[in-house]
Backbone:
């Protein structure tokens, strides 16, 4: 008997060579989720650092706030670009909408951690309830982002006069409304490109998160986890969802505040 | 049959109100830090100091999310360090790219 007593914990279901050995005291799935998230941290960090590098290579708009005009000669001030709210057309309400989005995502992270906590207690009713709230938060956030993108792409009423090289290779000066990957009314082309790639990549993560949350909500509601005997899947999806929130905290600071 | 299906086969542990209270407290801290960032965005002049404050507050928030929500602090120490230590590479990335960006600025303008 004494020979089987090792320093590492061995699961009774699998042998020591069958994956039952857990030196980090976390299951295979949880461990791999952590390492995936680490690689994802690098992806997002590369995006945000590239944003910072491109941004410092341009001068920043330094004129008075009330006469701000977009130009590809200088980097725009975020609070003068992101100043719109749904149903309040033409009002200048800087950063309010993105603040609301941040609030929604942080709250959905809180309901997620409450679901994980309920999972530790094997409380099926609580897990299902909190997962539903998290799911609603995720869908609301995505809807907000859809509006934000739509507004960014369609632009303001006045637009801006931009001089740029068009896709035929000619230098043209014309009034630009909204944004695409080639030209935009807010600032240099890189500004809109980075907006689309960074918030788009984050939104893609949120979309996957919403699918996973729906899966967890459905499975906990019909009792799959109860029959399985544990709620570890909720915990793993929870890690992913908190990561999405973590990334948004950084996107919010680097894209909308600085 | 239906009642049998709904009956829990697992032992449901009652709520620990202390733990739940701590989660809501963390949420409040996160929202307060975001509110502070908001106020600073409109009251302080733009500049290096403000950016440093923003980045500091953001890392502070990240710490709360990773430690309290993702329970990274409760994991085994080797797992904790295998997540935290590789982030050192990001320090180099930020320094290298910021240097590069400001050099491009000097050439262009």
Residues:
């Amino acid at each position: 008997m004494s020979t089987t007593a090792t320093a590492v914990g061995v699961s009774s279901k699998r042998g020591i060579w069958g994956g039952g050995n857990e030196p980090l005291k976390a299951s295979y799935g949880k461990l791999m989720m952590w390492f995936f998230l680490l690689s994802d941290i690098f992806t997002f960090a590369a995006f945000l650092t590239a944003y910072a590098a491109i941004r410092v290579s341009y001068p920043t708009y330094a004129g008075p706030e009330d006469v701000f005009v977009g130009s590809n000669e200088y980097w725009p001030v975020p609070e003068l670009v992101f100043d719109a709210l749904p149903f309040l057309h033409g009002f200048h309400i800087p950063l309010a909408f993105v603040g609301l989005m941040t609030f929604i995502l942080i709250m959905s992270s809180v309901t997620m951690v409450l679901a994980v906590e309920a999972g530790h207690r094997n409380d099926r009713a609580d897990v299902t309830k909190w997962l539903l709230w998290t799911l609603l938060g995720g869908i609301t956030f995505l809807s907000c982002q859809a509006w934000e993108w739509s507004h960014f792409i369609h632009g303001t009423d006045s637009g801006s006069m931009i001089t740029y090289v068009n896709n035929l290779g000619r230098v043209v000066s014309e009034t630009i409304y909204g944004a695409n990957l080639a030209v935009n009314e807010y600032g240099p082309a890189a500004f809109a490109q980075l907006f689309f790639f960074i918030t788009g990549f984050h939104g893609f993560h949120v979309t996957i998160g919403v699918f996973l949350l729906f899966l967890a909500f459905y499975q906990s509601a019909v009792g799959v986890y109860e029959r399985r005997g544990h709620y570890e899947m909720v915990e793993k999806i929870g890690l992913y969802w908190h990561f999405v929130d973590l990334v948004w905290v950084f996107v919010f600071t680097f894209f909308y505040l600085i | 049959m239906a009642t049998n299906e709904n009956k829990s086969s697992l032992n449901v542990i009652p709520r620990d109100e202390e733990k739940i209270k701590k989660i809501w407290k963390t949420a409040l801290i996160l929202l307060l830090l975001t509110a502070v960032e908001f106020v600073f965005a409109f009251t302080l002049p733009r500049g290096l100091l403000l950016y440093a404050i923003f980045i500091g507050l953001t890392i502070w928030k990240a710490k709360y999310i990773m430690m309290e929500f993702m329970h990274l602090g409760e994991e085994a120490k080797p797992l904790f360090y295998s997540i935290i230590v590789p982030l050192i590479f990001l320090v180099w990335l930020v320094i290298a790219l910021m240097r590069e960006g400001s050099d491009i600025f000097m050439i262009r303008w």
Q: What stands out?
A: Chain B has five helices and no strands.
